[in-house]
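Lab notebook page, bench 4
Experiment: in silico fold of construct C2
Operator: M.H.
Input chain length: 186 residues
Purpose: comparison with the prior construct
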Amino acid sequence: MLTRGELAAALKGLLRLTRFETDGFHHFDASLDGFWKSFWAAALALPVWALLQAEQMAAAHPAAPLRYAALQSIAYAVGWLAYPLLMVRISRFLDRQHNYFRYMVAYNWFQLVEAAAWLPLLVLIGSQAPADLIALVWLATHAALFAYGWFIARHGLEIEGTTAGALVIIDFLLGLLIDGVTNSLL
């Protein structure tokens, strides 16, 4: 079970990382136990994800809400597990398995920041803002999240910048793959 102190430390680490301060990594529990506890971020980010799914379901899949919800729930779980599993192999290939927990714990907790970053977009979509504004916010949000993903990979794994960039792209493409498979089943 995650304690308040552990959650507070993770949030403090997140605050430091959002300022691009590498000492933020010191606030996370970079152990096997800390790794498993970092998946509590999935539960904490769930309300934002549910809002996003409700918006998408209403717009694109109103006829089959239970099927949509079930498939998207499975995709949510797969999304939380796929990248950490892939990173086991990649961290070994990069000879950075000793930094795996440091990176993945920060990466998992950072998903809370990512969830919060999508809230303005949900507000714009819900208020039926102009499509150009929604596209601009979408692009800016992705750019910021890519920058943070690069920073966390670069300093969490202690790797070169180009390799960190490649990991961000792999993570993004993996998310697209999961979304594509899920959408093909709807």
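Observations: The chain has a mean pLDDT of 94. Residues 4-185 form one domain.
Next step: discuss at group meeting.
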